[in-house]
Amino acid sequence: MEDKSEPIEKKPDTPSAEKKDEKIDRPEQESEEKKDVELEHTEEIPETEENLETKTEETDEKAISEVKKKETKKTDEKKEKSKKEADRGKDFRYIVRLSNTDVNGEKNIVYGLKSIKGIGVHMATLIADEVGIDRYMKIGDLKDSQIEKIQEIIDKVSKDAPSWMLNHRKDLETGEDIHLIGSDIDMRLRDEINILKKIRSYRGIRHERGLRVRGQRTRANNRRGLALGVSKKREISK
């Protein structure tokens, strides 16, 4: 019997398959080429004597420019100080003594009086207005008579100022509204704390124990003493 089956013809490789293979291979080749180019760019340039000289020159120039800037700043500050001193007269006082404190004479009256313990901005403005002096005037330019007036008003502030502006109202002994200044504040505070301790009031006991007095929390905050970790219970050996 003869085989009538026709021979199977082999189809030639289609160009599309080759193209697909080429497309698959191309991105890999391109990535490799990019890596090579990047490596070429990232290769360190050998430091020659010329490059080192240029770098040292740049650093020297920067240092010189910084030094020049500092010198110019110093000269400008000196010029400003000399101008200020020239504007001020010979009678200018750089330190003025008021209520046992040294006040900087270069400050304005309001902020100069504010440096005294017990006097704030409101109280200082009130004192300046009662004396009849400009608030923006320098304290160093004041005359002896003006300084004496300021001191007199500071001593009588509790009478001249309104009650809401005073810092110690309803005194324990007299029951009056008083304004304390300077070291009198610390003395009066110490005396009142001692009275609370003698009375054995809640606040006095808290002061004695060194705890918070005004109801602050002490569980997480205000922790004192040694920091102890979690301690395990000892097992009794049988």
Can you characterise this structure?
- The chain has 238 residues and is mainly α.
- Among the domains are: 87-162, Helicase, Ruva Protein, domain 3, CATH 1.10.8; 182-212, no CATH class.
- Helix content is 53%, strand content 3%.
- The chain contains eight helices and two strands.
- Helix 4 (121-131) crosses helix 5 (144-155) and helix 7 packs across helix 8.
- The longest helix has 39 residues, at 49-87.
- The model has no long low-confidence stretch (mean pLDDT 80).
N- to C-terminal distance: 103 Å
CATH architecture of the domain at 87-162: Orthogonal Bundle
Strand content: under 5%
| DSSP summary: helix tally | 8
Uncertain segments are none
The secondary-structure element order is: HHEEHHHHHH
CATH topology of the domain at 87-162: Helicase, Ruva Protein, domain 3
Gyration radius, rounded: 43 Å
The percentage helix is: 40-55%
Taking strands numbered 1, 2, ... along the chain, how are they ordered across the largest sheet? 1-2
Total beta strand runs: 2
Question: What is the highest CATH level, the class of the domain at 87-162?
Answer: Mainly Alpha
Could you give a short account of the major beta sheet? 2 strands, antiparallel
Q: Which structural class do you get from the secondary structure elements?
A: mainly alpha
What is the 3D form? flat
